[in-house]
TrEMBL record:
Gene3D superfamilies: 3.30.590.20. InterPro entries: Gln_synth/guanido_kin_cat_dom, Glu_cys_ligase, Glut_cys_ligase. HAMAP family: Glu_cys_ligase. The lineage of its organism: Bacteria, Pseudomonadati, Pseudomonadota, Gammaproteobacteria, Pseudomonadales. GO terms for cellular component: cytosol. It catalyses: L-cysteine + L-glutamate + ATP = gamma-L-glutamyl-L-cysteine + ADP + phosphate + H(+). GO terms for molecular function: ATP binding; glutamate-cysteine ligase activity; metal ion binding. It holds the Pfam family Glu_cys_ligase. Its EC number is 6.3.2.2. This is Glutamate--cysteine ligase. Pathway: Sulfur metabolism; glutathione biosynthesis; glutathione from L-cysteine and L-glutamate: step 1/2.
Length: 526
């Protein structure tokens, strides 16, 4: 443990500050494909009973019309976020007829690319922006890749924590700059150690062979219709999942917020010849929002993002630039197919301890060599994380994954203990112990459990994922919401449809002018 971490922990463990860490905030975003009873991608429209995907605060869609995304509020107790996620699932199942939610990160059997429906958001300018952006994703990366699903874990430390640390460390910068700098430091440490999360929580070691039809790959065959890698943890997070040649040279600097924002502004303003060849429009139909490296900043795929709640009409990058970092969004979590919600409280409590450690531990700036090392460690873990004796690199030195992981848990343990002291429990310590068991016995990891189910039950990936989806659907359907909760969700759906209709009635000007203003808002000169 570094001296800096020890001092910060001691400061927060004082009697007058002990309650502070009860006020961390947690939010969840979970994606799931809608499928028909046979496990094929649903080609039906977004159910109107779920409300407007454009304006509903809890239920929207991601890339495809069939890719639902459920969003919870930010709560101080992660149990409340999971309860809200559970309620959203129960409401959705009451409106979906025979359709199921696919409870795996890698997709079901997909139709031909042309038949995968892109999400629709109505005729308002902002709704059309969202649709055209997704058309751009289709022509740039293909539709199948956009049907991969995951869970995003939003986390913030208490606002009162930052001035306390700033004063103790004698820093005289504006408070907003200090808070942003500390969140960016958290992100650097996350980059250093996030390979551990892939080992512990990766749950996609296999895919349906149909997902990679006509694509080159180095996967092995595991029975008919299943491709896998024997030591993989998360093929979703490998180069088989989200890949982008244009982004290969885009490595935003996480050494300060300004340089990170500048790199994204540059990317949304720099033409990329292959995208220029596609063109902006074809036969009068928009193909993409622009022909640059990124259409918008959200197109940059990363395992973690700095975030700030944006005001109406404000771009994410504008919000960050104006008011600094408010929370982080962890984006690398697979859906655990053994859990109805895809995540549980044990994972959430360990993530809290892990992220607190990343925030409080010393986090020097990262030079290019260390950045490349971190990227390599992550990539190696998602493809070979359970391989006996696997070695990663730390400052040019080989580190055996298991030993390094156990050493990290020893350091994180102090943060888990501090959280338990604040909450008057031992739940964070128990969550950490559960992760230690996975390092000592790789067969306990979700990725190993998936492969064991395929082999022992003689199932293809598709049959396994279909079975788990049916089991979870039955569990949610057996627990309908009470009348009051059902009525509240129904009213929220109606309100969102009315809000979308109002947007469509009140908009002014042409779509072309709207796109031009939208793009100009974050150009480098802005």
């Amino acid at each position: 443990m570094s001296d800096l971490l020890s001092r910060r922990l001691a400061l927060l463990d004082s009697a007058e500050q002990r309650d502070l860490l009860r006020h961390c905030r947690h939010g969840l975003e979970k994606e799931s494909l809608r499928v028909d009873p046979a496990g094929h991608l649903a080609l039906t429209p977004h159910p109107q009973a779920l409300g407007s995907a454009l304006t509903h605060a809890q239920i929207t869609t991601d890339y495809s019309e069939a890719l639902l995304e459920f969003i919870t509020a930010a709560e101080e107790d992660p149990a409340r976020s999971l309860d809200e996620l559970d309620a959203i699932h129960r409401f959705a199942y009451a409106q979906m007829g025979e359709e199921l939610l696919w409870t795996h990160s890698m997709p079901c059997k997909l139709p031909a690319e042309a038949d995968i429906p892109i999400a629709e958001y109505g005729s308002s300018h902002i709704g059309r922006i969202k649709h055209v952006y997704r058309k751009g994703l289709a022509v740039r990366y293909g539709k199948a890749m956009q049907c991969i699903a995951g869970i995003h874990y939003n986390f913030s430390l208490p606002e009162a924590l930052w001035p306390l640390l700033q004063q103790a460390e004698g820093d005289s910068r504006p408070a907003q700059d200090w808070q942003s700098e500390r969140y960016v430091a958290l992100i650097r440490n996350f980059r250093r150690y996030s390979w551990l999360l892939m080992y512990l929580f990766g749950a996609s070691p296999a895919v349906c062979a149909s997902f990679l039809k006509e694509r080159e790959h180095n996967l092995e065959t595991l029975g008919e219709g299943t491709l896998y890698l024997p030591w993989a943890t998360s093929l979703r997070m490998s180069d088989l999942g989200y890949q982008n040649n244009a982004q290969a040279s885009l490595r935003p600097c996480y050494n300060d917020l300004d340089s990170y924002l500048a790199s994204l502004r540059q990317a949304v303003s720099t033409p990329y010849p292959p995208y220029e060849a596609i063109g902006l429009q074809k036969d009068g139909e928009w193909q993409q929002l622009n022909t640059n490296v990124l259409q918008i900043e959200n197109e940059f795929y990363s395992s973690i993002r700095p975030k700030r709640v944006a005001n109406s009409g404000e771009r994410p990058i504008q919000a960050l630039g104006a008011r600094g970092v408010q929370y982080v969004e962890v984006r690398c979590l697979d859906i655990d197919p053994f859990l109805p919600l895809g995540i549980d409280l044990v994972a959430a409590r360990f993530l809290d301890a892990f992220l607190l450690y990343c925030a409080l531990e010393d986090s020097p700036n990262m030079a290019g060599d260390e950045c490349r090392e971190c990227t390599s460690n992550f990539a190696l873990t998602v493809k070979e994380g359970r391989k006996p004796g696997l070695a990663l690199q730390q400052h040019g030195e080989a580190r055996e994954l298991t030993a390094w992981g156990l050493e990290l848990l020893e350091r994180i343990e102090a943060c888990a203990a501090l959280l338990d002291t604040a909450h008057g429990s031992d739940l964070h310590q128990l969550a950490l112990n559960a992760q230690r068991a996975k390092l000592e016995d790789p067969s306990l990891t979700p990725s190993a459990r998936v492969l064991r189910s395929l082999r022992e039950d003689n199932l293809s990936f598709f049959a396994f994922a279909q079975r788990q989806s049916e089991r979870h659907a039955a569990w949610f359907r057996s627990r309908p919401l009470d009348a009051e909760s059902q009525a509240a969700f129904t009213q929220s759906a109606r309100d969102s449809l009315a809000a979308q209709a109002q947007l469509e009635q009140e908009q002014q000007g042409s779509f072309e002018e709207f796109v031009e203003r939208y793009m100009a808002a974050i150009e480098p000169s802005a």
